[in-house]
Each structure stands twice: as C-alpha cells, then as structure tokens.
Amino acid sequence: MATLKYSRQRESIKEFLSNRHDHPTADIVYENIKLIFPNISLGTVYRNLGLLCDLGEIRKITAGDGKEHYDANLEPHNHFICQKCGRLIDMPAHIPDYNPVISAENFNGEIEGHTIFFFGTCDQCLK
C-alpha cells in the first residue's frame, strides 16, 4: 500500500475542522482555508475532504438541507439542527431511552454507528 504524501493544505483543513463544532460545508471550509492558502481551489478542498473521509479522519454528515457538512469529532455524539438558521451543532451522545444494541438485534444488516438529529431553535436564534 502506498504511503500518503504529507499535505499542508490537507492538514490545515483537518485542523480547521477539529476546532469547530458547527459542521461547516465545503464552501465554508474553502473560504477559511483560502485565507491561509490564497491559491487553493475549491476542487482541492473537495478532494482533501473526500480523502480525509476515506481515511476515517473526519466524517461527512448529510442533514437534509441539500448540503454535506463535515465533522472532525469522531466520538459518538448526536446533532441538533436549528430550524431557523440551519446551524448543525453537536449534542451529547447519551440518550437514556435509546439502546443501539437492541436496534442491532432487530436489524438484519450490520450497524457501524449511529447519529440522532434533534430539531428546534438554537440558543442564538432564541436571543
């Protein structure tokens, strides 16, 4: 298996995502990474996001808004979607009434993980 060549741009993308909890889209990642690397293309950002997902270093989240969001937090956790501003933010993983083991017993496939989406109004929109 070939060794992956180090990339400052890819590392910057990963670092940018690891410092956020709001799950930015590729466009948001691009606008921020472009401040560091002015000549970076949107295609390069997309390729690096895809590679980081393939390597298991970040995950892609589809939240039903037609956009793909990216998350560097690989620990089990859930998400909250604000129905006013569209923010996608982390929530604690523990939900007392949900048991993934029971779900797996009633499913013929192989479950590799789960996430739960909560909907409502975020604290910033409530202000």
Task: Write up what this structure looks like.
It is a single chain. This protein has helices at about 10-20, 25-35, 40-55, 100-105, 125, and strands spanning about 60, 70, 80, 90, 115-120. By secondary structure, it is of the alpha+beta class. The chain has a three-stranded mixed beta sheet with strand order 4-3-5, with no helix packed on it. Helix 1 packs across helix 3 (about 40-55) and helix 2 (about 25-35) crosses helix 3. The protein starts with 7 loop residues before the first helix and ends with a helix. The mean pLDDT is about 85.
Overview features:
127 residues, alpha+beta, two-stranded antiparallel ribbon, 5 helices, 5 strands, globular
